[in-house]
């Protein structure tokens, strides 16, 4: 962490010689952190090669946001993302259904919970 903050050129002033020399080794992240970093890389990958507007994560979030804003059924959502996928290049990373979209967002800890709050069907998100 010190090396990241002050940079390797200034680290010799702050660290003992045993750490600043050739024995210095960067600590690898633990398994849970590495899994999270891998998910971030995957989520930030473009939706297809050359796409500059959306990543897999942003497309999933936008689709789930539309689902929430317009109270779509799961069947409608699945058909919508299927149609979107059919219009994209073959190597796209668009989710195929509601379950995959929800799962890709939940992996990053960005889940969504619906809570019924009145008899007329109003909900809190």
Structure overview:
There is one protein chain. This protein has 125 residues and is mainly alpha-helical. The protein folds into two domains: 1-31, no CATH class; 45-124, no CATH class. Helices cover 50% and strands 3% of the residues. The protein is built from seven helices and two strands; from the N terminus they run αααααααββ. The protein has helices spanning 2-6, 11-14, 17-20, 31-44, 56-69, 74-86, 98-106; strands at residues 115-116, 123-124. It has a two-stranded antiparallel ribbon. Strand 1 (115-116) and strand 2 (123-124) form a beta hairpin. The protein is flat, with a radius of gyration of 22 Å. It starts with a helix and ends with a strand. The relative contact order is 0.10. The mean pLDDT is 78.
Descriptors:
125 residues; mainly alpha; flat
Radius of gyration: 22 Å
- What distance lies between the first and last C-alpha atoms, to the nearest angstrom? 38 Å
What is the overall silhouette?
Answer: flat
Taking strands numbered 1, 2, ... along the chain, how are they ordered across the largest sheet?
1-2
List segments where confidence is low: pLDDT < 50 over at least 5 consecutive residues: none
Whole-number count of domains: 2
Number of helices: 7
């Amino acid at each position: 962490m010190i090396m990241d903050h002050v940079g390797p050129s200034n680290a010799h002033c702050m660290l003992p010689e045993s750490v600043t020399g050739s024995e210095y080794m960067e600590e690898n992240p633990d398994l849970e952190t590495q899994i999270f970093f891998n998910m971030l890389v995957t989520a930030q990958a473009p939706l297809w090669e050359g796409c500059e507007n959306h990543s897999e994560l942003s497309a999933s979030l936008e689709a789930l946001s539309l689902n929430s804003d317009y109270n779509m059924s799961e069947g409608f959502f699945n058909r919508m993302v299927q149609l979107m996928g059919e219009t994209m290049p073959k190597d796209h990373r668009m989710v195929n259904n509601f379950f995959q979209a929800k799962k890709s967002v939940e992996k990053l800890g960005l889940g969504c919970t619906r809570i019924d709050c009145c008899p007329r069907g109003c909900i809190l998100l």
